[in-house]
UniProtKB/TrEMBL annotation:
It comes from the Bacteria. It comes from Roseococcus pinisoli. Keywords: Oxidoreductase. The keyword Oxidoreductase applies. The keyword Flavoprotein does not apply. Residues 114-292 form the D-isomer specific 2-hydroxyacid dehydrogenase NAD-binding domain. It holds the Pfam family 2-Hacid_dh_C. This is C-terminal binding protein.
Length: 347
C-alpha cells in the first residue's frame, strides 16, 4: 500500500477525452502516493475515504457528513475555481485546508465575458438569423437603433481576478468602467482605472452589468428583482460567474417585461436547465453551457495544479491557494517561497 492515499469519486471528471491521473501524478512522483477512485454515493465514498490522506474533490458534494468521517485527511483539493461543492465551514472546523485553482482560467473567462458583451450589444444572433432567413434588408435598420459602444458604461458586481481581466480588455473599447465590491478597498479598484461605486450605482448607471460574484452562501440571490428594476431599459446583463448569485425568476421577468434589453449568460441557477426554462425560448438572451473557462489547456492546467497542491501539502508545505487559510496557522505545514531559476542579479 502506498504511503499517501488520495481518494476521489469514480467517474467524475471534466476530462474531455481519455482519463487517468497521469497529469496529477507528475508532481507526486517519488512520494509513494496513489490516487484511488471511490463510489460516488455518500455511504460508499465515506467507507473508502475515511482513512484517506487527501481528497481530490470532483463530481459529488463533499458534505459535512463526509468531512466529519475523515480521520487522517490533510487536504480537500479541487480542480476548479468554485468551491461550492465543498462544505468549507465543516472543513475549517475539522482543520482541513481546502484548495482550488483560482488563477488558472482567468484569461479564458474574461475572453468569454467580452464575447458575450460584444455579441449581445451588436445583436449577433439576431443578425445571423436575419441573413439565414433571407431578411437581409432588416439588419442595418435594427442596428441603427443601437448607440456606438465607445462611451458606454460597464459595471462590475464583484471585482476579482476575472473582472479585472475583463476591465483590461474593455478599456481600449472606450468604455467607462465602474465596480462594486464590498471586500475591496477603493484604491484596489481605482488602481485598475475603474471607479468604485455602490451596488445601486452599478445597476442604475451601467449600460452593461457584468456579474462576477462567487458561489458563497452570502452571495445567493445577491441580485434580485429590486436590482433589475434599477437598470436602464437599454442595458445588458452578463453573467460568467455563478448562476445562483442571481434570482433567475427576477432576471427572466426583467427580460420578458422589458426592464432590460438583453442578457448573455454562461451560467444558470440550475444546470443543465430544464426544457421548460423560459430563458431558452427568449430571443434577447445568448446562452452558453457554463463553458467560459474551457480551452485546449483546460484539462492539463487544472490537473497539474491539483497534483502540485497535493504534493505540497503531503510533503508538509503550505499550498499555493487555500480558501480557508486560517486552518494553516494551526497545522504543521511550512511556508514555502517559489524559487526563481536561471535569473542572475542583472536579469
Amino acid at each position: 500500500m502506498a504511503k499517501y492515499r488520495i481518494v476521489t469519486p469514480a467517474g467524475a471528471s471534466f476530462t474531455v477525452a481519455g482519463g487517468g491521473y497521469d497529469l496529477e501524478m507528475e508532481a507526486l512522483q517519488g512520494m509513494d502516493a496513489e490516487i484511488v477512485e471511490a463510489p460516488m454515493d455518500t455511504a460508499g465514498f465515506i467507507a473508502a475515504a475515511k482513512d484517506a490522506d487527501a481528497i481530490y474533490a470532483k463530481g459529488i458534494p463533499i458534505t459535512a457528513e463526509i468531512i466529519e468521517s475523515l480521520k487522517n485527511c490533510k487536504s480537500i483539493t479541487l480542480g476548479s475555481v468554485g468551491v461550492d461543492s465543498v462544505d468549507v465551514k465543516a472543513a475549517t472546523r475539522a482543520g482541513i485546508p481546502v484548495t482550488n485553482v483560482p488563477d488558472t482560467f482567468i484569461e479564458e473567462v474574461a475572453d468569454h465575458a467580452m464575447t458575450l458583451l460584444l455579441s449581445t450589444f451588436r445583436r449577433v444572433i439576431e443578425q445571423d438569423k436575419m441573413v439565414r432567413e433571407h431578411r437581409w434588408k432588416e439588419g442595418r435598420p435594427a442596428l441603427l437603433k443601437i448607440p456606438r459602444l465607445m462611451g458606454q458604461t460597464l459595471g462590475f458586481v464583484s471585482f476579482g481576478r476575472v473582472a479585472r481581466a475583463v476591465a483590461k480588455r474593455a478599456a481600449p473599447f472606450g468604455l467607462r468602467l465602474i465596480a462594486y465590491d464590498p471586500f475591496l478597498d477603493e484604491t484596489q479598484i481605482s488602481e485598475h482605472g475603474v471607479i468604485p461605486v455602490s451596488l445601486n450605482d452599478v445597476m442604475s448607471q451601467s449600460d452593461f452589468v457584468s456579474m462576477h460574484a462567487p458561489a458563497r452562501p452570502e452571495c445567493t440571490h445577491l441580485l434580485k428583482e429590486e436590482h433589475f428594476r434599477k437598470m436602464k431599459k437599454s442595458a445588458i446583463f452578463i453573467n460568467t460567474g455563478r448562476g445562483p448569485t442571481v434570482d433567475e425568476a427576477a432576471l427572466t421577468k426583467a427580460l420578458s417585461e422589458g426592464w432590460i434589453a438583453y442578457a448573455g449568460l454562461d451560467v444558470l441557477e440550475v444546470e443543465p436547465p430544464s426544457h421548460n426554462n423560459p430563458l431558452l425560448g427568449m430571443d434577447n438572451v445568448i446562452l452558453s453551457a457554463h463553458t467560459a473557462s474551457a480551452s485546449a489547456r483546460f484539462d492539463e492546467a487544472r490537473k497539474r495544479r491539483v497534483g502540485s497542491e497535493l504534493a505540497l501539502i503531503l510533503s508538509g508545505k503550505w499550498p499555493m491557494s487555500c480558501v480557508n487559510p486560517a486552518v494553516l496557522q494551526n497545522t504543521k505545514l511550512q511556508r514555502w517561497q517559489p524559487v526563481s531559476i536561471g535569473r542572475g542579479p542583472n536579469s
